[in-house]
Amino acid sequence: MRTRMKKPENLQPNMISMIDFVMLLLVFFMVTAKFRGTEADILSLAYARNADRVEVSETTARFVINVKYEETGVERVVFTVQGAVFDPESGSAMDKLGDNLRAFRFQQPKGQIVVRVDRRIEYRYVRKLQTLLRDKLGVSREKELTISYAVDQNPPEQ
Amino acid sequence: MFIKRKKVEEVEAQITAMIDMTFLLLIFFMATAKFVLPEGTIPAFGIEKAEGIGGGVSAAVEPYEIHIIKSEGATQIKGKYRGVETEATGINQLEPIRARLTAYLNENLNESGAPLEGVEVTIQCGDDVKWEAMVRILDIIRETKIPKIRFIEQS
Questions:
Q1: Residues of A in contact with B57 (CB under 8 A)
Q2: Is the Cβ pair A134, B46 closer than 8 Å?
Q3: Is residue A112 part of a domain?
Q4: In the prediction, which pLDDT does B55 show?
């Protein structure tokens, strides 16, 4: 008896769905990758578990002041705002920073003031900045101003 | 006239090499990816002069006072409310302060469970205290859900 043989089926894997999937993964990683903006100087922030999360899509205007060691090898603390450096020991620099703050408050009354402090820095510098904010923005108990202190939400590696 | 047409060559994209590359890239990204949480913020009111405490606004409740100083190289934290003092030595020994803050909040809740007006923590900090110690205190206060934090200039 003669049997009819089936034609061998084409057993090539379906590449299209696999490529679709790989591309999806690639796009996911590319979209979730984050790039630091110019305002966010790389600082060693202190860790806190119970902080408010800052939403990435937040459109609120922010005035970010960094309190950090100057990158010159000398242990000198400076305030920086979008790349501009202010010496906390200089009266004229503090006046200029105060003017910038006043201008920001005038243009953005609901804007947020964010203070990012290196965790190794002594409180005296933060106090200086807090005093500047109070004196230049005329903040009193009746006219309160909330300052947001930036913290790291990732536990330090052991 | 009959023109002989050339046979159309079959053009096939070489996808094997592309898939190899894509996989290599994918494995690289997956192996090196580090998921980090974005920065958070802790809100607090600006600094107030020491003589201004309690003035201006009539509060129903006294604030809980925290004093942070550096003594002989160690950070000391003292909490004070209605004359009762609580002390902690070192920023890793803050449990007594946290317990007192929780008790302070629980003592000062209204009928609906919301904090009464004036429930707040005031912080006075020595100039030579590291900012990291301050953030540990701020973290503990936030954990207890006390709504207001205020800095006071050292007298």
A1: 141-142
A2: yes
A3: yes
A4: 47
pTM of the shown model:
0.76
Q: Which two tokens stand for residue A82?
A: 């979008």
* Nearest Cα to Cα of residue B123 among A126, A151, A136, A53: A126
Note whether A15 and B19 are within 8 A (CB): yes
Residue A117 CA to residue A129 CA, distance in Å, equals 11
Number of compact structural domains in chain A: 1
B19 to chain A: which residues are within 8 Å by CB?
Answer: 15, 18-19, 22
Each residue of B49-71: pLDDT tens digit? 776 555 444 567 889 999 999 88
Closest-CA residue in chain A for B22? Answer: A22
Angle between helix A91-107 and A123-137 (nearest 10): 50
Residue range of the domain that includes A129: 62-149
How confident is the model at residue A38, as a pLDDT? Answer: 46
Find the CATH number of the domain harbouring A110: 3.30.420
Cβ neighbours of B151 in A, within 8 Å: 127, 130
